[in-house]
Structure formats: structure tokens, C-alpha cells
Amino acid sequence: MEQVISSAEMRNWEQANFDSSFADPLELMYIAGKGCAELFLQYAQRYSDFQRIVIFAGHGNNGGDGVVMASYLAERVGAEIVLALAKEPEKFSVSSKYYFQKLHKKVQVIPAEKVQLFSGDLIVDALLGTGCSNVMHEPYKSLINSINQSRCLVFAVDLPSGLGADTTVRADITAVIGGFKDILFTESGIESAGLLKLVELPLSLEPESRAGVFAASEQWFRKNTKPMSRSVHKYQRGSVLVIGGSQEYFQAPFLTARSVLRAGAGLVRLLIPFAVQPGSGALSIIPVSVKTENGAFSGKNLADVLKYSEKADCIAVGPGMGRNLCSKDFIAGLLKLDKPLLLDADALYFASQMPELFQQRQAPTVLTPHRGEAQRLAEALNMTIPDDNIAFARLLAKHYNSTVLLKGARTVTAAPDGRVRLNTSGSPALATAGSGDVLTGLIAGEMAHFHSDLTDLEAWDSAARGAFLHGLAGEYAGRRFGNGVTADDLPEAAAEVFFAKY
Length: 502
Fold this sequence. Notes:
- By secondary structure, the protein is α/β, with parallel strands linked by helices.
- Helices cover about 35% and strands about 15% of the residues.
């Protein structure tokens, strides 16, 4: 389910399906618990030396999901499995009690307060689900603190327990059940939830929710990724013209161009200042050096763009371009071209000085600002800047007649018509120099798949897909290299995860 909903909307959605006999509470709990267990196993296999799985379970339906997980895992792993109960079984919900009575005999059941955690443990947090607010009470407060102090891998079921209260589990992975809750995109949700992975539920009725706010999940990404035809040729895969570089910053556009190719485009030309010496190591890139003023693009280079953009499906401009004053006329000329255009980095700096040109554009435009660049775009129109990133991205997209990808820990991609997709992939590994240049290339590669007849909606979709792939690459590279990930690792990591789960 792609819509982003509140916890209350999630409960109402489930209840509406129960009331209409489209879903059964017992069956749905089993599907949720089984899905969480299968997702847990994908990550547990990376920790071959773990000794126990400790499942902390509360008395509500979230705890019931944990009980289902315990029985399911007991049949599939040889490690000791401990079900740590925060409340007596007599206090369980009806569905939770049903599965507790069928608990696999291999599972060891003990009161949660008596559990002593060890470094070799893997922890499942199924204490509390939705609806937490204000002050966390005992025994949950002490249990959450114990989990957080353990330094073990923590896998949260649906939401980290306590999210919304003053004491919250800090999870490494959160298995989001049914749909992404809006609280996961708040500051506390971003800090507490870790990696977000969706466990889908077979609910026929659609939820009532905020219109037009969607999540980018792996299921959505895979479902919309089409395999290439065996008879495809390079131009059918898409062609991109990347423009960037300057005397000061000459490597950035090579990183972008390489990322375009790793996103599946068939051909990329890289227009660079004459002063830049090609030498990225990626021989499949076609670099074109042009004469410039002081090593920076100017209005005189628009003729070069026209020459090399004829066969390009889209243009990506900005990485490493610098802020030489002569480049303003160059960006103005690009904005007047009838060609899909992506503006990043210093191209955004100049674009903010001529917002009137965006309303005149017919071809789709994608802007990829971080918060500071977005503020400059807003100030150019004397806009009041909202604190909420969703509202901010929507406002910019409307006034700039563009898809706006507002970068952040949970990147927001807004279309000119107000539709929004919130990114759910990513890791701290992406906080490295050059990461944004890779993102630009991945988005441009996605845009090129639609060729030059790209629509605004497809541009929005391409930007959201590029952001998700970028985040997935960060997760993968982070698992391999830890804190040592560099932007150079990301294009190849993106290619590795593009068609296959990792």
C-alpha cells in the first residue's frame, strides 16, 4: 500500500475490512507475523554468530505479531528463541491469546523483566504498536531502556515501541505493517526507526488518508521496474547529456555521468569546460570538451548544447559547475530549451535568480535542492517557508512548475500538481561528498527511460525512483563498507541492487 497514513487511519482501515468481511483478524495477524519473520530472517543471516532471538511482546496485537514470529522462527532456525512477555498471557488480546495457545514448544517463555540481554542476541521489539503518546509507563519504560542499552541488533515490528512518547526503542530495522505511518517521517521517527521495510497486508478496501501522499517502498520500486527487451539498442535505453564541471570542481560531473549509465541509460555525453581534462576511468562516458570563459560555462556555450542535445532524451546540469557570473546566461538559455531538464547544485543557484522562466517551460523540469538551496528558491519568490518539508516541497513545485526533490533523511518528491512521494530507503552512508552528484545521475537515467516525450508525472516518478535507488545503494554499500562508504562506491552499488534484492 503506497499511501502514507496515520496510526488511527491504519486501525480504521483494518476495522473497515473486518466489518465488511474482507479480512479476518486471526488470518491478518498470521500474515503480518509471518511477513515480519521472513523479513527478519533476511537480516539475521548476516549475523551468523548470533546465539539467541529475544522477542519482547506486549499484550496487544503488536505482541501477537511477535508471538506468531516466535513460532514461525522456531521452525526455521536452530538458535534459542525467547519470548519475553511484558504482561501475563491472560491480558492478551483475543487474537494474541489464540496464537499464544498454539506457541511452538521450542520457544522459551519468560517474564520480560527477567531477561538478561547478551551481545550475541538479536532482539525483536513487539512491545507496543500504534497510539503511544506523552509519558511512557512501566514496565515498558524499563524494557525499552534495557533494549536500547543492549547494543544488539533491534528489529521493530510496525513501529519502534514508544514512538510518540518520551521513551522510544531505537531500532536498526522496522518492519512496517500494511502501510507507512506518517509518524515515521517525523524527526523522532527518522532517528528511531532505522531502515524501513514494508510488510504488505491483503486488505481489499482502501484506507481513508491524506490525499496525494505516497511512500516509495521496495515493493513499489520492483513492481515498476521493467526488464529490458533482448532486442533493445542503446538509444532505446535512453540518452542523457550531462553538463557540469569547472576549473575548481572537475570530477563531479564524471560521477554523475557514471551514475546515469548505472541507472540503465544506454548513452551519456558529458559536456565539460575546455580546461577540464577527461580522466574519470569510466571509458563508456563520452566526454566533450568545449571552450569556455575562465573555465566556466557561459551563454556562448548554448550552441554546444544545441549540437549535442539533439539525440539526448534529457539534460542534467549543475554538478561541479561553480558560480562564475557568466554562467547565469547559460542556465537561462537552458531553461528556454524545449527539452526535459534536471537542475542540481550550482545550476539551482542561478535558477533562483530567474524564477519567471520556469512558468514558461513546456518540457518537464526537475529541481533537486537540499534545504539551504530550497530556501534560496523560496526567497526569490518572497515565499513564507514552511517548517514541514512536505508543504515546502509542494509549494516550490507549484510556483516553479517543476518536480521538486527536497533532499533529506526522508527525501520528499513533489509534483507540480501537489502529489508527493516520501522516500523510505537510505542510510547514514549517503552522508558523503559527491553523494548528491550520484543522485542526479540516477534520476537522469530514470528520466531517459521515458525518452523525450517525458510527462510531468513521469518526471515526478523518475525523481522518486532515482531517490529510492540512491537510498538502496547507500544501504547496500553501508553493509559492505560501514562508515567507509564513498560516493565512488554508489553507482556500482545502485546497479547491483537495481534488479535484485540484496
